[in-house]
UniProtKB/TrEMBL annotation:
SUPFAM superfamilies: Class I glutamine amidotransferase-like. Belongs to the peptidase C56 family. The keyword Membrane does not apply. GO terms for molecular function: lyase activity. This is Glyoxalase. It holds the Pfam family DJ-1_PfpI. Residues 13-141 form the DJ-1/PfpI domain. It comes from Shewanella scandinavica. It catalyses: glyoxal + H2O = glycolate + H(+). Keywords: Lyase. InterPro entries: Class_I_gatase-like, DJ-1/PfpI, ElbB. Displays glyoxalase activity, catalyzing the conversion of glyoxal to glycolate. The keyword DNA damage does not apply. It comes from the Bacteria.
Amino acid sequence: MKKVAVLLSGCGVFDGTEIHESVLTLLCLSKAGAHYQCFAPDIKQMHVVDHLTGEVDATARRNVLVESARIARGEVKSTTELAIAEFDALIIPGGFGAAKNLCNFATNGSECEVDPLVTDFINEFILAKKPVGFICIAPMMIPRLYPHGVKGTIGNDSDTVAAFNLMGGEHQVATVHEIVVDEANRIVSTPAYMLAGSIAEAHSGIEKLVAKVLEMTDAR
């Protein structure tokens, strides 16, 4: 049975993992008959956002691994615990945590860097030529991790598209229902809540992404 790693970035759209996207990913994997294991880096969150008011709580401090355990029902491992031979693929849901905690795109734009623990984790899948799925804003890490000209999508936001291309990627415009596949680099991406107006719309692209990632594991 296939086993997929799912990389989380906290809990909550504004400062962590987008909860709908992560749960839909886990549901689609389970319905497809695949096992999954959630991972997260053991690092501090960039900041903490009150999801009711949208305001930053300047006094609060939270840990990405600890917060990710909320989504994983406690079944989450540090990225340093990865045993790559046990996994067939990786999927990374979005949410601002992907752009604030996994990398710093939210503050640095096209000059962003991926956190070293996250780079090491994802690079294990890249070096093993195992497929990786990027959802929502998570694809902004793609140009920092893969060779020049790598393909991916965040949907159609012009400023974000420009940053993706400036970083060395080759952005492909997509709708919420579509996925973009880079066969050469074994990447699948979809916009999800970069465009979705409902959880059903987010599910449409995520379901296709999960199916394609699992299909690509057969092609190894």
